[in-house]
Amino acid sequence: MLLVLEKNKLKEFKKKDGIVRYRKDCPIDSNTGRVYGHNDHEGTGHGSLPYINIKRSDRITMRIDLYMVDLYIKKLITAIENGKVRGFDEIKNINGENYLFEYAIKKEDEQYNTYLFHIPENKMEMYEDYATEEFSEFSNIEDAFNYFKLQDVDIRKFAPIKRTLPF
């Protein structure tokens, strides 16, 4: 169904009737690191970032690349490289039960230390029996980020931690 909707949007966008239209192309393919369907065989760079196409009433199409996510990740990496701890917590519903998850990352002695914690919300008073805490160490930041991605963690949510640090 989604593919049919996307094809209809593209067909609507390509109409040459003088109506101003826009079309966003944002989802990134985790296998290629590029916008879905943008292999860039010509080497133009098109599709390396999410973007919005705007078709003006004079039929000229403009593209606006969306650098914000890329800029945030660069700032996150800079903070981590400078020894800052970054992380966040969230509640996830797993099989009808809410779990508290906490994540963190810190660079120390040229290693990237990661922290993953989770516990069912209704078992927090029995922390020792039900909590899972995992510390891992990676030699580069890409492996640390990939570790979190494999755990279905959105690294764009990492921010300064305003409570007791896990490291």
Query: Averaging pLDDT over every residue, what do you get?
Result: 82
What is the rounded distance between the termini? 46 Å
Helix content: 10-25%
Query: Describe the biggest sheet?
Result: 5 strands, antiparallel
If you compute it from the alpha carbons, what radius of gyration comes out, rounded to the nearest whole angstrom?
A: 21 Å
Task: Identify low-pLDDT runs.
Answer: 1-6
The total count of strands amounts to: 10
Q: Widest sheet: strand order?
A: 9-8-7-6-10
Judged by helices, strands and strand pairing, the structural class is alpha+beta
Strand portion: 35-45%
Query: Which series of helices and strands comes N to C?
Result: HEEEEEHEEEHEHE
Shape: elongated
How many DSSP H or I helices?
4
Attribute tags:
about 170 residues; alpha+beta; five-stranded antiparallel sheet; three-stranded antiparallel sheet; 4 helices; 10 strands
Give structural notes.
This protein is α+β, with helices and mostly antiparallel strands. 24% of the residues lie in helices and 35% in strands. It is built from 4 helices and 10 strands. The strands form 3 sheets. A 5-stranded antiparallel sheet has the order 9-8-7-6-10. Strands 1-4-5 form a 3-stranded antiparallel sheet, with helices on one face. Residues 1-6 have low confidence and may be disordered.
